[in-house]
Amino acid sequence: MFSRFGLKSIKMKIVIINYGAGNIQSIKFAIKRLGFDAVLTNDVEEIKNADKVIFPGVGEASSAMSKLRDSGLDNLIPNLKQPVLGICLGMQLMCHSSEEGNTKGLGIFDVDVIKFSSKVKVPQIGWNQITNLKSTLFKGIEENEHIYLVHSFYAPLCNETIAECSYEVDYSAALQKDNFYGTQFHPEKSSDVGQRILENFLKM
Amino acid sequence: MLAKRIIPCLDIKDGRTVKGVNFVDLRDAGDPVELAEIYSKEGADELVFLDISATEQKRKTLADLVFRVAEKVNIPFTVGGGISSVEDVDVLLQNGADKVSINSSAVKNPQLINDLVAKFGSQCIVVAIDAKQIDGEWIVHLVGGKVPTDRKLFEWAKEVEDRGAGEILFTSMDNDGTKDGFANEALAKLSTELNIPIIASGGAGNKQHFTDTFVNGKADAALAASVFHFKEIGIQELKEELKENGIPVRI
């Protein structure tokens, strides 16, 4: 599958930021399925020198943020120059703030993360559709494709929205600013669509 | 729009699938990883692995299996069966499980739900509830539905939600194995009274039953085992029919 895009021949260093927040095995495997190895690390130099940085995250925002601070990663991440992809909570932490645990975020994306109301089931769990796709991250991806999400908090639409999703309201399924990308959904769990999105990121 | 999910359930014993499966194209019908890959390709939205083994090596065997599934499969999967501690869950999530499902251990020690949610987050904690009607009242049962408890379904489900579980997997023991359809009345009540997703389980016999449980049972997802394993229903054709019936699905 990966040879189709000629990725396997490119040598690159991919790191997954390991700060003790949730399951990172899946993202590691997804990268491996694309023909690459990713290194799990919280080492500042190693992250700085990587070609691609993946910033995962599962769990609660304030405790994840304090883990980032403990390892000094809160200062490092916003200053990275290479393509960075935040996934799920990782994306939320890249925002200005999160209502969850009243958390100050990394401030990369200028948007405040808030909670879904009780008009809908929370968390949203399952496959929803992405629309208004606006980035090379979605090259080869059609409008209305399904992606997998699990979340209770969301980033409203903003200038940095590059994909939308609808659940109670239209909100940001993905964000981008300069070299920083964030997806609320889990590309590593979103079947072939997610695999292609991850591949697009690795090709940047 | 958020799609309704179709979830095949695989029973696992000592790292192998238990029930006979009717996949002619399988090299090894007992290999859960191979079966998982096939279901994933056919369009399953999620998978559940229910471990029913009772050996001392159980934990390690299950962790190994989870690792191998996570390596190959790019859709989410849940692991359940005999999980009773924070450590159990930690090992499974570290090996690549997306969610874990707890059942008896939650009834015996409801605080476990809070502890797991505090450590891992609501999103990965599914509480499975087995219940059947006794004198018109839905009563929670343990040990695969064999042992009645003093808990009532709707009260227990509410407590499970209040303690922070992210999802409820409700199996009606009255419907399980009958192939007469899901327990839609109870499901609808759960789905209306609670504000977390409800997975319907027990009773799937034909495609119409799935439409019924999404429409009448207001279920967010439907789980089945034998109808998929014995190829009585193909996942793709099931989803086509659901779509024709106006139910949002991922095709």
Automatic annotation (TrEMBL), chain B:
One of its GO terms (molecular function) is imidazoleglycerol-phosphate synthase activity. Keywords: Amino-acid biosynthesis, Cytoplasm, Histidine biosynthesis, Lyase. One of its GO terms (biological process) is L-histidine biosynthetic process. Its EC number is 4.3.2.10. It is found in: Cytoplasm. The keyword NAD does not apply. One of its GO terms (cellular component) is cytoplasm. InterPro entries: Aldolase_TIM, His_biosynth, HisF, IGPS_HisA/HisF, RibuloseP-bd_barrel. It catalyses: 5-[(5-phospho-1-deoxy-D-ribulos-1-ylimino)methylamino]-1-(5-phospho-beta-D-ribosyl)imidazole-4-carboxamide + L-glutamine = D-erythro-1-(imidazol-4-yl)glycerol 3-phosphate + 5-amino-1-(5-phospho-beta-D-ribosyl)imidazole-4-carboxamide + L-glutamate + H(+). NCBIfam families: hisF. Belongs to the HisA/HisF family. IGPS catalyzes the conversion of PRFAR and glutamine to IGP, AICAR and glutamate. The HisF subunit catalyzes the cyclization activity that produces IGP and AICAR from PRFAR using the ammonia provided by the HisH subunit. This is imidazole glycerol-phosphate synthase. It comes from marine sediment metagenome.
